[in-house]
Write the structure tokens for this entry.
Amino acid sequence: MAKTIRIGTRDSELALWQANTVQKKLADLGYKTELVPVKSTGDIVLDKPLYELGITGIFTKTLDIAMLKGDIDIAVHSMKDVPTALPKGIVEAAVLERANAQDILVHKGLDFLDSKGIIATGSLRRQAQWLHRYPTHSVVDLRGNVNTRMQKLTDNDWNGAIFAAAGLERIKLKPENYIDLDWMIPAPAQGAMLVVAKEDDRYCRAALAHLDHKTSNICVRIEREFLRELEGGCTAPIGALAQIVKNTIHFKGALFSLDGRHKIEISEEIAIDNVKSLGKKYAQKVLDSGGRELMREIKAEMN
């Protein structure tokens, strides 16, 4: 019997855009849906860096609880915000076709790049990579949804702020004064949207299977496996990007120290037939190349 699929989402403009995209795709397939916006802790508490809040799942936990309580049937997330281990009873049901995975710098002029500057970001990964490239700069914490962060950049004397290109492009907020950070390795699954459902909800899982984009799913799975193997339950500056060109997977991943001084990077190409446990294998290479010691240092600094 057909039911109305209740779509849980954060209530920011970007999150609602993503949820509306899923809603339209399901409607085009003949499914009845309704949106259920929910405010997450990550959206409410804006005066602390994410890692101090226990970053894992800060934007997804509220929706997980709503789903397990039966208030919503599915939830739409920016996949890079989703912990690599989902709560018991919740599963990944669809990865939509990935958008632009790149980071960009929104700036007020680029004269500062070769001297001293102040860059804003709430991401340890972006902070570490920026300081690795520009060690004379300083980085300040920037929190809030995309609109809030853009306004904070305007209101403060910072030289620039780092954003995910996909988020700004989706809600048409990408300004003219930006540059692509093509040297910065993105967050695992950046630019991808994930829809989760309850493991025992066959109706919703069957509906969402129609939305899954196979190539995007393969790539983000490798990246998240790389992240899970490296992290070991600790938040760290980790970047990963897998891309499929013809029948070859091109992978780039890196682990940085918090201050950006140390970097352990891996760059590999492999036939798509060998995808099994690929992210885990690449993470082990990083760990064997000094990554274990670096992760110990990161954990010590953050405790």
